[in-house]
């Protein structure tokens, strides 16, 4: 085999791996992880089940592959690539998410499912949320210091921001024409960053 | 059969129906609806599958039974029974929920799952969220008028409150020792209700 043939084969294998992961994400968005079958993923990508198992030896390996592609869907992972994050960048990510309901659906299904029973993604999401709270707290400290203009500390604001990101996604997935996801997120940002109350800032502490 | 015997039988049937619903809620909390099997529900409640089917003719009927028991777990349904709801009542419900992770888990699993694919609970949750936004908007208007002290309208605050209720539950279920669910909710309430900024209230409009 020539160098060029080897390169062509590797590229083809990589493309097929990606196609399988895309199909798995779509299946999880449809049915959640527990109800996803390798047969359904195979049918979606036009392969046989043994064809899938050549790339991912089990359904659990496929889940790990989806989770490892987290940069596609994980706000915290996206932010961790930047050094100078500001709260306004988050608003852009929410607007971006509003354009791709499929990815949001995969994420929402997996995150909520991971909090039930013995789920193979439970540890991943537990660590992911802890990391997200730490990352959000860190960049809020950098931008606002120990207290945000609205009165909360970055430690108090971080879980709230993450909760609204997750919670508003469910409402938006169910009623995209009624729920304006970016607007709801901007409203929280406004509450968090509006100028400190003149009369008695201590009442928020 | 005497009147008393008939009464005893009806009470026994009702108790068994309740026990089946409790078992179904527990199974859904463990596995979600799609991966829940009638066999698992039957095993949990100590009945045979035909025994379950006598009370609920299909898995979908069982789901409907769980959804109809919504007063056990649905904040909006709890609130709709009261005529003079205040924002502070919501805080009490969050504190109550923090004492019963099982119910919260059933609800979180079902709500997120309902937003995926063709789910039998999708219509229920779509309507439930629309009703919750309307109910929250209504009681906020009653308590605060057309604008809340923090600057948002009741229409803007309602989806945010619901989003935080849902979103913080996921973080709390995954890390109950790290995430203080009632405190996070109180922080949002504080932001929404803190006295209007003296310098320029218009900047929030």
UniProtKB/TrEMBL annotation, chains A, B:
Pfam families: TetR_C_6, TetR_N. Transmembrane segments: none annotated. PROSITE patterns: HTH_TETR_2 (PS50977). Coiled coil: none annotated. Residues 14-74 form the HTH tetR-type domain. Keywords: DNA-binding, Repressor, Transcription, Transcription regulation. Residues 37-56 bind DNA. InterPro entries: BetI_C (IPR039538), Homeodomain-like_sf (IPR009057), HTH-type_TetR-like_transc_reg (IPR050109), HTH_TetR (IPR001647), Tet_transcr_reg_TetR-rel_C_sf (IPR036271). One of its GO terms (molecular function) is transcription cis-regulatory region binding. It comes from the Bacteria. This is DNA-binding transcriptional regulator, AcrR family. It comes from Rhodococcus tukisamuensis.
